[in-house]
Design brief:
Number of strands: 11
Number of helices: 9
CATH superfamily: Survival protein SurE-like phosphatase/nucleotidase
Shape: globular
CATH architecture: 3-Layer(aba) Sandwich
Helix content: 25-40%
Structural class: alpha/beta
Strand content: 15-25%
Strand order of the largest sheet: 3-4-2-1-5-6-7-11-8
Radius of gyration: 19 Å
Distance between the termini: 24 Å
Amino acid sequence: MRRKRVLPLAALMLCTPALAGTAPAVAAPQTAPTAAPAAAPAGPLRILLTNDDGYNAPGIRKAFERLTAAGHDVTIVAPLTNQSGTGTKMMSAPAISVKHPEPKVWAVDGTPGDSVAFGLAEVFADKAPDLVVSGTNFGPNVAGLATHSGTVGGAVAALESGVPAIALSTGGLSAPDPVTTVNAMGPTLDFAVKLIDRLRVRARSGPLLPKGVGLNVNHPIVGADGKGTAAGVAATFQDPQNFLEPDFTDAGDGTWKVSVKVALKPAAKGGDVEAVAAGRIAVSPMNSDWNTGPADQAVTSALISGLRP
């Protein structure tokens, strides 16, 4: 089951020509949540910064520098080690190890969800942050990758607690090259600063985003060195395909060797895969639960009509 494709008016307004010079592709909207989160301040934001690559990874460190330079009050609360692919997992262990290696940096020996939970409960115990930013991730989080992404999982943990969240990822649809991907993190974060400023200005001291709605942002790699400018910005949805196909080979000793190949299918029109493949930044609204919306609920009601235990 996929998360419902929520695209409220506030999200549609984010990707206007002022952000990147091109008109966005727009997915069909569904009803937005009615409740609103706490109002955002008119000035710089207090940001909890997390990721799934680890607290000392290039993406989160570059994000810290860029967001701080933009005037925001940023605190890193992120996994101690690489937690890629952990999705929304939370350990729920009886004890957890947390390090505080430097000011404004906390390293949690757990998943991105654990990190956000600790950050909200302890680091930001007196007052919740205005925004949680997760990333920027090394590699894309589009289509089926987003469902299992720890970067997206960190953002979902924030949404579950009522805190607005943005997941940031940098990468194209091919295997990521370390140098060009790290280079492309610069344009990714330049865009993130513009996006956050757009949220803050449009909020006018109201909520940054509708309650329960976050943004999954995927920035492509543009140019041979990764430093190029994206072709535009598109309001998208998560492409339904899962293009990673696992293969298992029996080793004969009770274990199986696992390999994965990429098998891209035709991109869904208006989806994140289509946008990134075209060199555009994909901005997909997401929510924190698995509800698919009123239409699917009606179909399910019809399906079970007349059934009895």
